[in-house]
Design goal:
The complex is a heterotrimer of chains A (about 400), B (about 300) and C (about 290). With about 400 residues, chain A is an alpha+beta fold. Helices cover about 20% and strands about 30% of the residues of chain A. Classes of the chains: A alpha+beta (about 400), B mainly alpha (about 300), C mainly alpha (about 290).
Chain lengths: ~400, ~300, ~290
Amino acid sequence: MARIILDTLSKQYPNGVLAVDALDLTIADGEFFALLGPSGCGKTTLLRTVAGLENATGGRLLSDDRDVTHLPPGKRDIAMVFQDYALFPHMDVADNIAYPLRIRGEHRTQRRAKALETGTGLGLENLMDRRPGQLSGGQQQRVALARAMACQPSVFLFDEPLSNLDARLRLEARTFLKKLQKDLGVTTIFVTHDQAEALAMADRMAVMELGKIRQVGTPAEVFHRPANTFVANFIGSAPMNLLAGETADDGLRIGGFTVPFPHDSPRLPPGTPVTLGARPEYVDVVGTSTPGAMAGTVTIVEYLGATALVSVQIGDERVPDGADPVLGLTVQAMVAEGTEPQIGARIGVTHQPNRSLLYAADTGDLVSGTGSGTGSGTGSGIPGSTAATVSTTP
Amino acid sequence: MPRTAVATDAAGLGRARAGGFVAPALVLVGLFLVFPALWTIYLGLTDYRLTGLAAAAPKMVGLQNFRDALADRFFLNSLWLTLIYVAGSAIIGQTVLGFALAWMMQKVRPSVRGVVETVVLLAWLLPGSVVSFLWWAMLNRRDGTLNALLDTPGYNWLIQHPMLSIIVFNTWRGTAFSMMLFSAALQAVPPSQLESARMAGANGAQQFRDVVFPHIRGHVLTNTLLISLWTFNDFSPYLLTAGGPNHKSEILPAFIYNRAIGTGELGYGAAISLIMLVINLIIALLYLTLLRTRKVKT
Amino acid sequence: MTATAARPAAVPLGPPPSMVVKKFVSRVLFYVVIALLLVFFMLPMLWIVLAPFDASPSLTIKLPDFSTGNFSELWHNPYALRSLLNALIISLGTMALVLVFGALASYALSRVRVPGRDALLYALLLLSSIVSGTAAMVPIFLLMTNVHLIDSQLGVVLVMTGGLLPAAIFILKDFMDATPRSYEESAKVFGASPLQILRHVVIPIARPGLATIAVWALVNAWGNFLVPFILLRSADKYPAAVVMYTFYTEGGQPKLGLISAFSLMYSIPVVIAYLVVSRRYGFRFHGGIKS
């Protein structure tokens, strides 16, 4: 078991691409940690650098207090499960699981016994003589896990552990992996591009973009208080509504409407350009004349089972004060099944101020709860949430 | 920033060890392939001979060998015959027959396919001197099988039709390569694309033109290049006709052998070899250009 | 289509009869063409199957008057067996060199970035198609004379290896490229050394490709006529390819009994090698030569 510390760790490729850009990060002992981001954000490179498959070009990597930055992979006490599992096709399951022990020079009978023991723990005891080609995707994954466990490393690395499974199996594997990690208690870092996976499995996660970490936090923190519009847009099964507007004395001006400030917003001079962030889950459908509502026309209703996602095109002839209707401004609202309006209906939408956030228009950074003496730093709980529960619709 | 510790390649070889892995192969290739090719250039400029005065002290004769070659009626004849041979046996014979076989084998039972492919492959696999003899026997004047079949006793195919004989011979011998290449290429054509074309109402020829051909175009080019080069440099017709009768089937390899080793004019032979190398190079460059335009298009 | 017709009772479902006939005829023609092609390819080979067992073989293909006399003649011919042994030495030597050097080089080239690698490989491949043929016979002859490797089987092996290596590296590299790197990386994370990775992972996984190249090199060297023909002088060093040629070109009436038995003995190893590879790995292009 080990704590992993990244100290201004960088990886620059010979062609100049800075895939990992001076990252500082501490992953606690026993933590299940997700690296999340779109493809090309550097998450896989970071994982491979931790594994030792890529050379760090700057900074340090510590495992507990040991500097492992320039150690070869085999000396880092780390095991990795690859995206394609990398099971050796010419070895049977037992030999695959026992491979790390073979490298350590253990005797064949001994290591096959240990392989059987590890494999049995994962329900592989009847498959020990099979070749990887004869196994299902889920079985292959468990063999790869068993092989990683066989050498009892202090850190596990999983590269996109669920991407090679079909949708149904993926849900099962998610639960299975989380339980396995808790049972073993081994520090685990996994890479995924699927925010739902990261939210569901990780104890904490880092959201990456272009080689940088844009936010670190627990799934709840990242979901409820995205530190910037990039994270806000990336996290959530339906992306957060990000509505451009500007501040006024009596609220936010958005698309010709005036809506209330989110709670714990700092005092900003009137006319400051900002972005309002409101999750569709926290947007309510109301009558068009409700105070603080934006009126518009329902364009699309997506049925999601227990809920429905309603897209509303904001603006119409009844925009107050003759202001120009803003074209292309769409707000999405998540409503309970059965309460969704008809397409073409005229409705109003309101955001819940206690669950909405304010971002600076230029930097995209969160300004809610950061200014005017509110004092609570980012990532310290959920703003104004009394009964907020994390709802992740897969 | 030079870091020493971890090699970045997948296996952790590192540059030095990788260099060590490549070195033996490069040395052998350099010594027995690149160096002779370069030496050909030098030799072509001398009057080097296998025996006699010029063997002991060859002297530079500049471009004399090349001037001689261009005035040499036998060389020009040989060049012409080589072109016919390559066009006839490689481009027409092997490519067309190879493709036809690959195409037809898609539509037959696996057992039939197995038999046909094995037989065609055997023709390719058997040692050159054996198949030369087999064809020599087939075409023999006295009791060759062909004469027995056609009831033309005493007809000497190798004398009457030497070029046709070696063209058919080489087609027979080399078709397997084209067949296998094309059959691999045809298997790689996505069935969904063929089905889309069929849904759109394309007939067989249109399906071939719009779906199959674009997929195998690269293979066709590769195949044509390789078998053209191989055929161009192929020595085995020599085993059948030795270039005869009276230079009628003396394609370039046979010509070079007869002049350089046969009559000992090494310098002249090298000059002809050089001309051959240049022609090969032109074929290769032509092919690369075609391949590049294809890549630009896609 | 048939729905609107005033149902003349006997309209069969399916295509009209003329099309059925057409389809049948084209199917028959199709198989006739295949049969003709099969005859074309098989006819010359029949001789080598039948004549060796004929008591009095002629050049014509005919059912044999069974006898094993030709093989005992082969057994007593001083050159025949010797030449098969020579061919074995030369082709095994060539195979070993091509396999070892080709595998090492292709693996390193596949895994370590070298600028200009692909262009170099392509140039070498083209050069080998050109030079190992006849265009370089003069300089190779002179080179081997000067380094005193003329009339030496080692010389023959080295020249053949040099000629075969570029294509071997080209094909093997393609094969190695197609092998996911995660196999090696996985072994590396578990602490395997480069040589362990090679032994435990790369070679077993590349085995089909290596086997194909081994047989390919073996068959090529076994059948190569020109190189030993130019480089060897003494009859007792000739491999089978050269002896086969001398059997039917030198000294008057060819001894057909001897030649037929010899051809068969000389050809069988190639066929066996093919069968072994095709049985175990499928004789296909392993993505070796593609666009």
